[in-house]
Amino acid sequence: MSESGLTIGGEHGELLEASPYGIEKKKLGMWIFIVSDACTFATFLFGYGYMRVGSQNWGTPFEFPTILNGIVMTLVLLSSSLTMLAAVRAAQEGQKASAYKWLGLTMLLGTIFAILHLREWFKMISEGWRLFSNPTGGAAQFGACFFSVTGLHLAHVISGVIALLIIARGFSRGRYDASHVETAGLYWHFVDLVWMFVFPMMYLMNAR
Amino acid sequence: MSSNQEPRMGSYIGIVIGLVIIVGIEVILAYQHLPVRTLFFSLLCLSCLEAFVGIMYLMHVKYERPLLFWTMLPATLFVLVLLNYVWPDAYRMARMSLLK
């Protein structure tokens, strides 16, 4: 029986009702976290958006190879959402080995995304990009915007890979069940959807 | 607790391909040399579309009780609208030439 369908027995049992949302409390907690985290990302992107549109001399520093790298990163992250869905489905069907395999593939794709991202960062840093230094002569705030927004997202991806590793180990050992995998999946899809804003705003808006 | 009407993996693949197509449209738009504001709002609208599809299907909100959607959405929109009142201060900064 799912947690949401439970009521506590005993003399006070009739006072407690099932969740009005029809979902488990860990999943509801994850949704509340996602809403608050979405607002955090929105704050960064709003700030960047207003500066980008309001600045007369922002510049468009990204050549096509950088955009291509961003496209590959997007495809990797979208693929990881698909493997995460497969992991959740396998976990719900009780196929532990399959769920473990799909979770492993999701972690691998997340790691590839992080490596591609860090490679891009190091390339930019070697070209002279800093938080308040723009080697192309455009707005000095570009570095601060780019590194803070993409850095926040990268931190979420790395945290997600670590969380998935913990969930996968716990699931394979029987400590966690399918609902834990599903809740971790919600977080992973959220990270994926945030990138759907970060990529066009931070990369495509600055394509030369 | 999701309903039993969840789509098969084939449907999910279709949804992800749809998201890839939207990303492709965004890339094409980026190279059309549109005015900054037009490009910004076009990309923002497409990103919102991607987010809506992702939330409804990949994150299964479509298959949960509607109360979840109608609790989360107004709260998020309220915060975003409030942000919209704060951030136009960036334009004042631009007018004051604080941005190069």
Helix content range of the residues of chain B, please? over 70%
Low-confidence stretches of chain B: none
Largest interface: A-B, 55 and 48 residues
- Dominant shape of chain A: elongated
Helix-and-strand structural type of chain A: mainly alpha
Give the termini distance of chain A in whole angstroms: 56 Å
Radius of gyration of chain A: 21 Å
What is the 3D form of chain B?
flat
What's the CATH class label of chain A?
Answer: Mainly Alpha
* End-to-end CA span of chain B: 52 Å
Tell me the count of domains of chain B: 2
**What kind of sheet is the major sheet of chain A?**
none
Give the radius of gyration of chain B.
18 Å
Overall average pLDDT of chain A: 91
The helix/strand order of chain B is: HHHH
Quaternary status of these chains? heterodimer
Number of strands of chain B: 0
Helical percent range of chain A?
A: over 70%
CATH level-two architecture of chain A: Up-down Bundle
Assign the CATH topology of chain A. Four Helix Bundle (Hemerythrin (Met), subunit A)
Structure description:
- The complex is a heterodimer of chains A (208) and B (100).
- Chain A is elongated, with a radius of gyration of 21 Å.
- Chain A starts with 24 loop residues before the first helix and ends in a 5-residue tail after the last helix.
- In chain A, 71% of the residues lie in helices and 0% in strands.
- Mean pLDDT of chain A is 91; it is low at 1-10.
- In chain A, helix 1 packs antiparallel against helix 4.
- Chain A is built from 5 helices and no strands.
- By secondary structure, chain A is an all-alpha fold.
- Chain B has 100 residues and is mainly α.
- Chain B folds into 2 domains: 1-64; 65-100.
- Helix content of chain B is 73%, strand content 0%.
- Chain B has helices at residues 9-30, 36-58, 66-86, 89-95.
- The relative contact order of chain B is 0.09.
- The model of chain B has no long low-confidence stretch (mean pLDDT 86).
- The chains are: A mainly alpha (208), B mainly alpha (100).
- At the A-B interface, helix 1, helix 2 and helix 5 of A face helix 1, helix 2, helix 3 and helix 4 of B.
